[in-house]
Specification:
This protein has 123 residues and is α+β, with helices and mostly antiparallel strands. The protein has four helices and four strands.
């Protein structure tokens, strides 16, 4: 596997305790590169505390292949990851469990709450 990683628009966001950047991956001859492999390389490049602190998302392969671009976040620690990362990305990283709720239950609850419009809604 020969892929080259370049980061651009790199910025340290002290407020959200993370480094954020756009990641360009050059992978000629390969369809794409797995996020796990990219996390390994990024943790070595930026000396991240753990691979679970790295969040990669939004990858798009450029027309013709050979190059992909996405967004990357490296949090300072796991506590910051749990605090600031959205729930769906925490589930992907394995930091949170997905709650199983049926679609019908969600819709019924929504419609019940619509009936009490104007009064205080309770959960």
């Amino acid at each position: 596997m020969s892929c080259t990683i370049r980061t651009r628009k790199f910025m340290t966001n002290r407020l959200l305790q993370r480094k954020q950047f756009i990641i360009d991956v050059l992978h000629p001859g390969l369809a794409n590169v797995s996020k796990a492999d990219l996390k390994e390389k990024l943790s070595k490049m930026y000396s991240a505390p753990d691979t679970t602190c790295i969040s990669l998302f939004g990858f798009r392969t450029h027309f013709g292949g050979g190059k992909s671009s996405g967004f990357g976040l490296i949090y300072d620690n796991i506590a910051a990851t749990k605090k600031f990362e959205p729930k769906h990305r925490q589930i992907r990283l394995g930091l949170a469990d997905k709650t199983q709720k049926s679609r019908k239950q969600i819709k019924e609850r929504k419609n019940r709450s619509k009936k009490v419009r104007g009064t205080k809604k309770n959960k």
